């Protein structure tokens, strides 16, 4: 039986003590949850001054509801420490499910779907006790 984690590749690049990037290539499904959470946990433990982690989803070829749940889980992980988690999207593969689910507004999104300059959609989500 093939390992479900084989359908996704997660790489981390640190850009100094305060910023980093996590890049996802492949399918953003349940198989991506563990490597994503592991990458974020390792970053948070190794960089106590971390302020921003850009999540690059430009290489995502497929995303389902489990992938959306993984993104929400990452968002909930960084929120208590005040770490920004902008999502970089390049296609409707990621953008459309987030828009249809209403979660588009939960994240700051760097929209690279058009050939022009990046369009940044700021998060309108306000942290509440139950968010």
Automatic annotation (TrEMBL):
<dbReference type="Pfam" id="PF01740">
    <property type="entry name" value="STAS"/>
</dbReference>
<feature type="domain" description="STAS">
    <location>
        <begin position="22"/>
        <end position="123"/>
    </location>
</feature>
<protein>
    <submittedName>
        <fullName>STAS domain-containing protein</fullName>
    </submittedName>
</protein>
<dbReference type="InterPro" id="IPR002645">
    <property type="entry name" value="STAS_dom"/>
</dbReference>
<dbReference type="InterPro" id="IPR036513">
    <property type="entry name" value="STAS_dom_sf"/>
</dbReference>
């Amino acid at each position: 039986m093939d390992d479900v984690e084989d359908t996704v590749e997660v790489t981390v690049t640190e850009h100094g003590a305060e910023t980093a990037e996590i890049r996802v290539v492949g399918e953003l499904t349940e198989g991506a949850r563990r490597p994503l959470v592991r990458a974020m946990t390792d970053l948070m433990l190794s960089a106590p001054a971390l302020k921003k982690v850009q999540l690059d989803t430009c290489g995502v070829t497929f995303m389902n509801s489990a992938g959306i749940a993984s993104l929400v889980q990452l968002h909930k992980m960084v929120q208590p420490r005040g770490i920004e988690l902008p999502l970089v999207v390049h296609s409707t593969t990621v953008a459309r499910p987030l828009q249809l689910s209403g979660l588009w507004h939960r994240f700051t999104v760097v929209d690279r779907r058009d050939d022009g300059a990046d369009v940044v959609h700021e998060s309108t989500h306000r942290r509440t006790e139950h968010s």
